[in-house]
Amino acid sequence: MYFRITIPSLQDGKKDEAISFVKEKVMPEFDGTPGLLTMMAAITGETSGINLAAYESKEAVEAVEEKIQGVLSEAAGMMSAPPVIYQGDAVYGKVYQTMAKESTRPSYLRLVVGVAKDTDAVLSFLKEKVEPIYEESEGLQVTGAVFDGSSAISWNFWDSEEEMNTAVEKLQAVLDSESETELFDGSTIAYMGPVYAGKLFIDFNEGDTPT
Fold first, then answer.
1. Closest Cα to residue 14, out of 80, 74, 68, 69?
2. Angstrom distance (rounded) from CA 97 to CA 122
């Protein structure tokens, strides 16, 4: 499974316009794209958002690159700067709740970006320290992670902000004990917010992994 994460920087006052653009233009335009497994969009602030798409392979993304660039060009007038884009093969993740194709449900996203000193060490941290917290958490829907060069991008979707916050306290404690500076150059950045648009093009079954 191959992921593409787009983090736009919106101009002041453009949030509602950007939400409408994604709902009315982007989602319908990519519906039925070969190899596209799911698309999700969350708003993480007055001037920030997250768009996340999962594809069967890197080749499936490359096949629609022209369409992607066309959409970004159309959205340029709403942005204060070019979007930050990360992409890569899944290195980690798990489905915690079965989600049927075409089904919809409330969802709250937390996505964390950091510059890894050693990607193997970060992956081990996810598997050994973070995953046990995920396993005992309530309301967790799905998790995932990719590396794009030295950038580490991990995410989790929750039934509610409250359930996410309960887990974040434990996750932060684990990160503090591990010493963030040992794993990352500088501080990690967390983006959090409600999913306002999304579509599943396949079934996601509990226990499935993207790797």
1. 80
2. 25
Sequence-ordered strand ranges (E) for 69-132: 79-95, 108-115
Residue 173 exposed, middle or buried by CB count within 10 Å (0-12, 13-18, 19+): exposed
Which residue type does 122 have? Answer: V
Q: 97 in helix, strand or coil?
A: coil
Catalogue all structural domains in the chain, each as residue range(s) with its CATH number. Answer: 2-200 (3.30.70.100)
Q: Please give the average per-residue pLDDT across 66-85, as a whole number.
A: 95
Residue-wise pLDDT for 111-170, tens only, equals 999 999 999 999 999 999 999 999 999 999 999 999 999 999 999 999 999 999 999 999
| Average pLDDT taken over every residue of the chain | 95
Contact 48, 7 (CB under 8 A): yes
In the three-class reduction of DSSP (H, G, I as helix; E, B as strand; rest coil), residue 197 is classed as strand
**Residue 176's pLDDT band (boundaries 50, 70, 90)?**
confident
What DSSP line would sit under 115-157, residue for residue? EBS-HHHHHHHIIIIIHHHHHT-SSEEEEEEEEETTEEEEEEE
Query: Which residues are within 8 A (CB) of 147 and not within 5 positions of it... i.e. 6 or more apart?
Result: 88, 91, 116, 119, 122, 123, 153
- In the numeric block, the tokens 């950045």 are attached to 189
Q: Which of 208, 210, 203 is nearest to 56 (CA)?
A: 210
- What Å distances lie between residue 142 and 28, 46, 57, 109, CA to CA? 24, 25, 19, 10
Residue 153 neighbours by CB under 8 Å, 6+ apart: 5, 86, 88, 111, 112, 113, 145, 146, 147
